[in-house]
């Protein structure tokens, strides 16, 4: 059995009523009915954040984008070893928090943003105008939820700014933002457009996790 399969089995073994008690536990929903967005302070503790930062620093490379100019996203990204215990535990906790089977999750990613680095305004769902949108969606469905966890606090800058909410979230150690990229009827929700503003002093480390409508298939 794969590590991901083992985690899925653990989640599937939980009673539905028990699992429901974990969903969005400790989180506050953003007061806008047109977007399903939650803020979960202290989702990870400082030691967990530090361990993940160390893993990111071991294996970070320039970030890529699904489509468009690479200058749109100037961070560095780490693809984690799924055998790392802290990564396995994170997978299970995120799936329990959102009530989503972990087989629907893309692999966890870590990002580091240095001074001046950013991710310009974008959506996490696959927009119809993307050349590869049909391929991505047909393989394992549209992206549903995004989970993003701040692993540190840069000295200045690095806010996550939601364009249609006209609000920027300042990075706070261990805090998670999570949002549904789709509307209740399953269409991409443009109110989820967001950007990672440039870091002005220090560095920013985050975890990013995307879930799909169907089981994740990297092929």
Write the layout of secondary structure elements.
Elements: H1 3-12, H2 16-22, E1 28-29, E2 37-40, H3 46-58, E3 60-62, E4 76-79, H4 85-98, E5 109-113, E6 119-122, H5 133-140, E7 143-150, E8 156-157, E9 160-162, E10 167-169, E11 176-180, E12 194-196, E13 199-201, E14 204-212
Antiparallel strand pairs: 1-2, 2-11, 3-4, 4-5, 5-14, 6-12, 7-11, 7-14, 8-13, 9-10, 9-12
Helix pairs in contact: 1-4
Structure description:
This protein is α+β, with helices and mostly antiparallel strands and about 220 residues long. The chain is built from 5 helices and 14 strands. α1 (about 5-10) packs parallel to α4.
Low-confidence stretches: none
The CATH C-level name is Mainly Beta
**Helix/strand class:** alpha+beta
Number of domains: 1
In the CATH hierarchy, what is the superfamily? q2cbj1_9rhob like domain
Determine Rg (CA atoms, Å). Answer: 17 Å
Number of helices: 5
The CATH topology is Jelly Rolls
Using the 3D structure, state the CATH architecture: Sandwich
Beta content: 25-35%
Largest sheet: 8 strands, antiparallel
Q: What general form does the structure show?
A: globular
Helix content: 10-25%
Distance between the termini: 19 Å
Mean pLDDT: 90
Give the SSE string.
HHEEHEEHEEHEEEEEEEE
DSSP strand count = 14
Strand order of the largest sheet: 1-2-11-7-14-5-4-3
């Amino acid at each position: 059995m794969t590590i991901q399969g083992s985690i899925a089995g653990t989640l599937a073994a939980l009673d539905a009523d028990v699992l429901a008690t974990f969903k969005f536990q400790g989180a506050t929903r953003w007061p806008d009915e047109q977007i399903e967005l939650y803020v979960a302070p202290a989702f990870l503790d400082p030691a967990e954040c530090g361990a993940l930062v160390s893993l990111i620093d071991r294996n970070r490379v320039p970030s890529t984008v699904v489509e468009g100019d690479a200058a749109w996203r100037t961070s560095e990204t780490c693809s984690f070893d799924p055998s790392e215990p802290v990564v396995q535990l994170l997978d299970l906790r995120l799936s329990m928090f959102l009530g989503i089977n972990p087989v629907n999750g893309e692999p966890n990613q870590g990002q580091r943003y240095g001074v001046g680095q950013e991710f310009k305004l974008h959506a996490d769902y696959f927009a119809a105008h993307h050349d590869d949108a049909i391929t991505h969606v047909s393989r394992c469905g549209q992206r549903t939820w995004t989970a993003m966890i701040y692993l540190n606090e840069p000295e200045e800058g690095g806010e996550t700014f939601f364009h249609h909410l006209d609000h920027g979230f300042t990075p706070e150690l261990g805090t998670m933002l999570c949002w549904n990229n789709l509307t209740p009827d399953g269409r991409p929700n443009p109110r989820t457009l967001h950007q990672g503003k440039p870091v002005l002093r220090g560095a920013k480390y985050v975890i990013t996790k995307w879930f799909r409508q169907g089981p994740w298939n990297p092929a």
